[in-house]
Fold:
Amino acid sequence: MQTSIKQVTPVEYDLEINAGPEDLAEDFQAELRSQRTRTNLKGFRRGKVPTSLVKKLYGKAIAYGLAERSIQQTYESEVMQPGLHKVLGQPKITTLEYEMDGDLHAVIRFGVRPEFEVVYPKRVSVSKLTHQVADDEVDHDIEHLRDSEADLVPVDDKVGDDDFVLVDLQKVVPETGTPLIGEKREDVTFYLGDKRLREEFRKPLLGAAPGGTVRITIPDDEGGDPVAYELTVKEIKRKDLPELDDEFVKTATKGQAETVDQLREQVTKRLQNSWDQQSKELLETKVVETIVEANQIDVPESVIEMYLDSFVEEVRKNSGDSLPEGFDEDAFRESRKDEAIYQARWMLIKDKIVGDEDLAVAEEDREKFFEKSAAGGEISTDLLRQYYGSINGLMEQLDQRLMTEKVIDFLLSKFKVVEKDRKAFEKEIEKAAKKNKKK
Structure:
C-alpha cells in the first residue's frame, strides 16, 4: 500500500491511498472464512458452504466493507496518530475507486487549524450605547400595565381610535351592495388601536355610531376583483383604566410592589437592566465584527460544513424533529454560508486568543455567575449551581460562555470604547446598514 499527503489549500490536505489486490488479500480471505462459518444455505451443513459460493454471494459486500475499514485505519495511522496535523472537522472521501479483486484508489480531504497571528487593528474605536431611563419611559410602561388591567365598558358614543367595536359583517356585491347569501358573520370584534388592523376597516369605522352601517371595500392584493362588506355596528366598548394608586399596584403586581413609588423603582430598574443588557450585546457584536474583519483567515471546508449542519439541525428541532415539507436544504445551506464562515473565523480567532493569553475559566468565575444570576430571584445560588451540574453538558456550555466573555474583555482592552447616546448610536447603525447595502 502506498500513501501520500499533499497540501491543496492553506488549511486543507489530501491523503491519497493506493493499494493493490495483494494488500487486501489476506484480510479479505479472513473475512471470507468468517462469513463461511456463519452462512447457512439449503443443501449444505452450516459452515460447509463452498468458499467460491460464499464469495459469489457476499464477496462484494465484504470487499467494500474491508475497503472502508482500510481507508479509515490508514487515515488514523497516517494523519491522526502522528499528531503532525491539527485536524478540524470531519474528513471527507473525495475519490473512491475500487472493485473486488482490483486496485483501491482513495483520496481523503481533511481540514486543519490555520496557523496565524491575531491582528489587532490600531486606532480603532467601537461604539457603546449608553442610555439612562427617563421618567417618560417609566410612565409609558406603567400606562401599559394600567391598560392591561383596564375594564371594557359599553358606551353610547361614536367610535374612537382606541375602542372595541362589535359588528355584524355581511359580504356584498361591490357594485350594487346586494348581500350575498351565506356570507354573513355575526358578532365580530375589531380593536381600532390594533396597528395590524387594515386601514380599509379602521377609517370607515371611526366616527360610526351604534346601529349605524358602513361599507368597506378591500382591493385584491394580486390584482383580482375587490371584496366588499357591509358592517353594522352593534356595540362600542371603551377602556376604563384603573386609578394609579397603591391598591392597584398591589393587585396588578400580585404583591411584588406595594406602593406607586415602589412600582416606579422596580420598573426603572427593569428597564435600565434591559438597556444595559442590550448595550452589552451590541458592544460585543461590534467587537467581534471588528476583530473578524481584521483577520480574514482561511477556513477549512469541513468546519464550514460543521456550522451549516448545526443550522440545518436548528431548523429540524424547531420543526418537530423533521425538516419542513418542501425545505430546500441545498439553497438554505448556500444562503447561510457567509454566516458559517463568519462564525468559524470567530471561533478560530477566539481559540487563538485563549491560547496566546493563557485564559481559563476558574471556579471563582462560575460562582460569580451563579451569585449574579440568583440575585433578587426566587432561586438560591446553591440550587442554581446544582441545576447546572445536573444537566449533561450545561456546565460546559456555561464555561464556553464565560470564556467568550473573557475574550471579549481582553479585546475591549485593545480598542477605544466611545460611549454614544441612543440617538447617535441609532444614526451610526443606520449609516452602517446603508454601507452594507451598497456592497
Notes: The chain has a mean pLDDT of 92. The chain has three domains: 2-112, 151-240, 251-296+359-438. The chain is about 50% helix and 20% strand. Residues 251-296+359-438 form one domain.
